[in-house]
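Researcher: Last one for today. Full complex below.
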Amino acid sequence: MNADSKTSQPRDSMIEVNHIHTRFGAAVVHEDVSLTIDKGEVFAIAGGNGSGKSVLMREMILLQQPTGGDIEIFGQNSKSMNETDVSTLRRRCGVLFQHGALFSSLNVAENVAVPLREHTQLSKRLIEELALLKISSTGFPMASVTKYPNELSGGMRRRAALARAIALDPELLFLDEPTSGLDPLSAAAFDELIQQLREWFRLTIVIITHDLDSLWRIADRVAVLGNGRVLGIGTMSELSQSPDPLIHEYFYGPRGRAAKEQAWNRK
Amino acid sequence: MNRPERAAEPMPEHTGRIFFAPDGTLGCTGPWTLEHLADLERQIRSLPKLSTGRLECDVAAIDALDTGGAWLLQRTLNQFEHNGCTISLHGFANDFATLMQTVARSGSQTEQLKPLPSSGWLERIGRVAWSYAANIHRALAFVGETATAAFSLLNHENRIRWRVLLHNLQVDGLNALPIVGLLSFLMGIVIAYQGAEQLKTFGANIFIVDLVGIALLREIAPLLTAILVAGRSGSAYTAQIGTMRVTEELDALRALGISPMSLLVIPRALALVIALPLLTVFANAVGVFGGMLIALIQLGVTFTEFLNRFEYAIVLRHYLIGIGKTPVFAVIIALVGCYQGFQVFGGVDSVGRHTTISVVQAIFLVIVTDAFFSILFNWWGL
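Model: Here's the assembly. Have a good evening.
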């Protein structure tokens, strides 16, 4: 990872989103969204359903072009990238999709080996070992590595997908609602896992979630999206003091209060 | 064992290296990251095997390390240790040491993993035989279930889902007209061309009518139409129902108290039973027209002559036998298509696999049934 520090990074920011506009036909998703994600932080993007969180993530990983504005990732403008740049960038990013998006025709070990096989010329044995290593570091039960995705529970599928996302030792990890659909215990365990991986592999993590517990637990900074713009950016305690009525509603709804109390009690 | 020339070499570019220094220490330098691993792996393979003694390993010059590199280093050291060396590692930066520990911990879990024993040939034969038997059982159960559902519909007429039925009639019948028409037109032309050559030599030009008429009406048009519909609609049924299974829509239907049989299977089967004979009639007409054109061009048989002879030569029973077979084909295609859809299990690749099976099985069964009909009608002297 450090080897890449040669590549110019004038500031310690991983991603800079500058005045993004996104429109689908008549529907406006982002009106003017700007934010900066620093190296080594866990940055959460929160907001209600349909506030454009997932679209913003898709734009950051270059699956979609914004209608206007720029995104700089690793100090490179997404618009000026050619094929090779994009492919290099993809190697440096890992993505955990909302429902895992494991390839259903491959078993778990093969799924995790896909990026290794595609992007490296390692021996078959080493690829297999590295895949198993990644799988075991996500806490996926090792006895199940030869199972196919449809034989797994939601939590296991999420862990397997996470193992695939970190297969290439990315510097930047995107997580799209990693804890949605998990029971509270699994969700808490998954949060812990993310913390741990971040320490082990020194990752920068962008996480999309509306799980308030997760936000309190793992996010260094949070951006709340709403009405097509960024309503507020800051730590959770800063945001919970925010005068913005929408943010207030978001954090002080019945569930928000409970999550906050819990977070305070833990401290 | 010593390879001083490699150690002394100035580094041409910044790559990961592993080598024995002149004083016998194992030196690791440069970036040990994923992009350099393939090269490092090669270097490790050419390292001399040490079997005893103390091995000093100097890793101070490693300037980048990721999990892949850490694992490779760990594995190499394990190998030396396994061969009887005692290893002392020094010079690790603090956070690299943490990474090594993490990797060693995870790695110890992966080592317990043994590959699954592959099954013997006897077991495989047994499994395949059993899966065939189970498949036949399931298919029979499905046919029975459909029949029960169909009979229950006859009793309460209002539960036939007309909207779905009409929709399927349009999609599987009306929309198939152009392709069925085009292909049977071409079929008529092909048969007439082949026949014309032979008949001309005998001067039996007018018998082109018998050839084209009987071949098309009795065999070619029904079979061609059934095969087309199997490829067009049977596959669609499998894919639709299979995808609904993957997305749990079938379970949702059941939970809402809607029987998938009455909503998905019966209307599709009924639609095909109605549409396939009609399509065949259309195919007959267009195919005979194709034959007429060639008869005129190649043999000089005018349309009037052709139609006069047609009325006289082609007995009604050929037409009826041809049309009569089609409802049976329709039931086969619809049931195979739906059945395979319900057999989908798991993910998207299962949908693809069952769609293929559905088309192949439907066409196979249609042709087998057709052969069976031929033998039967031959016995009855029809």
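Residues 95 and 174 of chain A are 5 Å apart (CA to CA). The radius of gyration of chain A is 19 Å.
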